[in-house]
Amino acid sequence: MNRFTLHELHCFVAVVDEGGFQAAAAVLNRSHAAVFAALAKLERQFGIALLDRSGYRVRPTEAGLSLYRRAQSLLRDAEALSLNAHQMAMGKETHLNVVIGDLCPRSKLLGLLSRFFAEHPNTRLQLHYEAVTGPWERLLNGEADLILHRIDKSDLQLEWINLGTIPLVPVVAPGFLPFPITNEITPVQMHELTQCVLRDTAQHTEPRNYYVVGGPSQCSVADHEMKKDFILQGMAWGHLPRFMIEEELRDGRLLSIAGRHFPGASEELVAGRRRDRTHGPIAELLWKYLETQAPALKLEIDNAVA
Hints:
This protein has helices at about 5-20, 20-30, 30-45, 60-90, 105-120, 135-140, 185-190, 225-230, 240-250, 280-305, and strands at about 50, 60, 95-100, 125-130, 145-150, 160-170, 195-200, 220, 240, 255, 265-275. By secondary structure, the protein is of the alpha/beta class. The chain has 3 domains: about 5-90, Arc Repressor Mutant, subunit A, CATH 1.10.10; about 95-165 and about 270-305, Periplasmic binding protein-like II (D-Maltodextrin-Binding Protein, domain 2); about 165-265, D-Maltodextrin-Binding Protein, domain 2 (3-Layer(aba) Sandwich), CATH 3.40.190.290. Helix 5 links the parallel strand 3 (about 95-100) and strand 4 (about 125-130). Belongs to the LysR transcriptional regulatory family. Pfam families: HTH_1, LysR_substrate. InterPro entries: LysR_HTH_N, LysR_subst-bd, WH-like_DNA-bd_sf, WH_DNA-bd_sf.
């Protein structure tokens, strides 16, 4: 049996989509005879009738419908392969790996990424979530082109774009503490109470703990959303990004215990990448795009927590 061609599959799919040979020929910019011959050849190769020609409109047979669905998938794959080859021939990346860290206001940053990649549909966004030192590990191991997180700005391997300041507030649910809330709450008082901490997703570097009292009872979670739920349910206390809890602080569902011994913290959210490696043209365009968007984003983030 001779191998079928993509041209023949294109003709078959077009005939099914358009309901006739003449309409398919017009869509494909081919002659009626060429489309008819392509379908006849396919049917001879497979030894089955693919089309029911008895009605006003041509319709696929049961076998033809099955092949039609597979042909659609194959043609999409062929188109993607062609685009990838074109991208590579032009020196453009076929995909970029971006890591969003636990400190990110996700909807804002996902909106930025969505708008950028809509303008560059031939480069696929491969998006990952990591927590604590996980984003650094991916970046330094060459597994990420860009991270949206905090970084060690003293590391000469890295460059960054400032995106805003993220305050973290130590909070509890009403009734969680067995003593009154004052500005003088100490780590000793909190030591016996369950603290909820974020689990470090780094696999091969020494885990780091931030704002941890180190008491006998501790629960670890994968992200700040789960951490917030634990704290709201009165199961633990912990630090949360202020942008996530403004409403709960206003209506009293969460209470700040910030004071002399628990001042809270502020982290600088950045777009970070390796300074010591070459970046492709789409990665460079993304970097420049983030640079142009950074002032407005920084103002929006900072005002949200002012």
